[in-house]
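=== RUN LOG ===
request id: a7f3
mode: sequence -> structure
chains: 1
length: 128
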Amino acid sequence: QVQLVESGGGLVQAGDSLRLSCAASGRTFSSYAMGWVRQAPGKERVFAAAMSWSGQRVYYADSVEGRFTISRDNAKNTVFLQMNSLKPEDTANYYCARDRRAYYSGNDLTGGAAYAYWGQGTQVTVSS
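=== RESULT ===
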């Protein structure tokens, strides 16, 4: 069973930065694409960022492009989300997720159906 544990959330002001981390259990982390999905209060989960298993392909939602950066450290079984220039509309619970398919890089990583395992989430609150 894969376990994903997010950390790094918190309360910040608009314009600040945060770095989220997601630690994964298991020995096959490097074989799978990873994603970040966020859910604002009263709204559905929406895609934020994803990185292919190889790290060669990254995908971002239009709303975070240019401000957020996804990265991974396979030696530490960890995926990161660097969030800069935060806005109040970035306020959400942020979840990391692991792809269902090994060695996959396709653009459907921008959809929630791509992911089989989810963390519990970490709350990010941006005040104006």
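=== NOTES ===
The mean pLDDT is 96.
The radius of gyration is 13 Å.
=== END ===
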